[in-house]
Amino acid sequence: MVRRPADVVVTISDDRGEIVTFNQVPLDKIIRENKSLGYVIGLLWFKRELPEFAQQYIEFVLKLTADHGPAVSGAYNAIVTTRAGKDLMSALASGILTIGPRFGGAVSDAAKYFREAMHKQMKPVEFVDHMKQVVKINIPGIGHRIKSVQNPDMRVVLLKDFILKNFPKHPHLDYALEVEKVTTSKRNNLILNVDGCIGIT
């Protein structure tokens, strides 16, 4: 008996019918009804229609983080790769491969560590001490080289404002802001940064 390899099964999108569907919603309906990118991301990543505030939030984050200028490592590497004569895909890959704990990669680590701290019901000061003494890393999503309490990152200000006005509840942001009070009492540039704000929400 010859064994036949299993087919790949995808439950998110389907192109077998007359029209492509995203989580069983026809693509032409998405286009006709002028659905947002946040709506489409909800269907593809979360397999459901997200509430309106969450759709708007996704688009808000994309707008805020669309460009950091040429000085950050991802953009710099993409520029260097382009100047070396490489194609667009190579330059893009070069920039993306630079994402790490010190550039853009703090989003997932902030989500992980803040969620864990809240799950364990750590007080903010306990969390700060735990990260320093046990985990032995800087708190992902906290700190900025240039911005400070006196000179805040407007992206974070706008993001916090959006969350506070539009989310029905925001316990993760509330917790992160309490952690920020502890960290900024030590140094004024240990603020909740944009990666941290995105990660905890």
TrEMBL record:
<dbReference type="GO" id="GO:0006085">
    <property type="term" value="P:acetyl-CoA biosynthetic process"/>
</dbReference>
<dbReference type="InterPro" id="IPR016143">
    <property type="entry name" value="Citrate_synth-like_sm_a-sub"/>
</dbReference>
<protein>
    <recommendedName>
        <fullName>ATP citrate synthase</fullName>
    </recommendedName>
</protein>
<dbReference type="InterPro" id="IPR002020">
    <property type="entry name" value="Citrate_synthase"/>
</dbReference>
<dbReference type="GO" id="GO:0003878">
    <property type="term" value="F:ATP citrate synthase activity"/>
</dbReference>
<dbReference type="GO" id="GO:0005829">
    <property type="term" value="C:cytosol"/>
</dbReference>
<dbReference type="Pfam" id="PF00285">
    <property type="entry name" value="Citrate_synt"/>
</dbReference>
<dbReference type="GO" id="GO:0006633">
    <property type="term" value="P:fatty acid biosynthetic process"/>
</dbReference>
<dbReference type="InterPro" id="IPR036969">
    <property type="entry name" value="Citrate_synthase_sf"/>
</dbReference>
